[in-house]
């Protein structure tokens, strides 16, 4: 595919970053069909143009980059998504992997790496920035695999645990006994292979990973 045939939407709430990205892409002959300064604009542009690619920041007003991607995918768009962010933390990598995002770059990456990412993504492969520690990517993938073993009931309980609900509150909300909730919690701890089996370890883990758990 020629660069001029690759239509791209870009979105970032930092004007200088947005302009710099646009200028680099345009100078390299990519077809930038729209720019958004917030998540809502990005979503509207994606749904209007159905571009080949969308390069999105995570932290944007109105909708985050992750929310834009989730909503766009619900509309069955064929666009491939690349995150361009400052965030290196595992919770963001986890969320990106859970949403099956095509690429994840850091704003510190060179433009040549952006091009490498674009080329890789267009081959239907996933690309993560070389700035990420490989071990962290493997670790996140393993966590996601473990979470796939949870039953629908366990996932429901885990989502409520992530909202800091007590076993009593969960039991009341789901119309089940506290004993059943505690059984679910024990099973979740076992399936996620948590070393410390104290129930607080699940509460703390779920809170730290609440954004990922939302995608279950």
From TrEMBL:
Alphabetized CDD domains for the sequence: LuxR_C_like, REC_NarL-like
Top-level taxon in the UniProt lineage: Bacteria
Listed PROSITE patterns: HTH_LUXR_2, RESPONSE_REGULATORY
InterPro entries: CheY-like_superfamily, NreC/VraR/RcsB-like_REC, Sig_transdc_resp-reg_C-effctor, Sig_transdc_resp-reg_receiver, Tscrpt_reg_LuxR_C, WalR-like
HTH luxR-type domain segment(s): 143-210
Residues found modified as 4-aspartylphosphate: 57
Stretches assigned to the Response regulatory domain: 7-122
Keywords of the record: DNA-binding, Phosphoprotein, Transcription, Transcription regulation
Pfam families noted in UniProt: GerE, Response_reg
Keyword Nucleotidyltransferase: no
UniProt keyword Cell inner membrane, yes or no: no
Protein name: Response regulator transcription factor
Species of origin: Aequorivita aurantiaca
């Amino acid at each position: 595919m020629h660069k001029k045939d690759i239509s791209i939407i870009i979105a970032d709430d930092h004007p200088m970053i947005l302009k710099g990205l646009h200028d680099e892409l345009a100078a390299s002959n990519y077809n930038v069909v729209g720019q958004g300064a917030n998540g809502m604009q990005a979503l509207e542009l994606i749904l209007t143009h159905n571009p080949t690619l969308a390069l999105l920041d995570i932290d944007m007003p109105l909708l985050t980059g992750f929310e834009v991607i989730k909503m766009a995918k619900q509309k069955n768009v064929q666009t491939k998504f690349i995150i361009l962010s400052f965030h290196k933390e595992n919770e963001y990598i986890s969320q990106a992997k859970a949403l099956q995002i095509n690429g994840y770059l850091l704003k510190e990456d060179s433009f040549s790496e952006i091009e490498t990412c674009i080329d890789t993504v267009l081959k239907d492969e996933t690309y993560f920035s070389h700035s990420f520690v490989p071990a962290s990517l493997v670790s996140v993938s393993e966590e996601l695999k473990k979470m796939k073993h949870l039953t629908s009931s366990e996932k429901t309980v885990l989502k409520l645990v992530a909202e800091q609900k007590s076993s009593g509150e969960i039991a009341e909300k789901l119309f089940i006994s506290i004993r059943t909730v505690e059984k679910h919690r024990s099973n979740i701890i076992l399936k996620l292979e948590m070393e410390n089996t104290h129930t607080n370890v699940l509460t703390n883990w779920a809170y730290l990973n609440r954004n990922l758990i939302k995608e279950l």
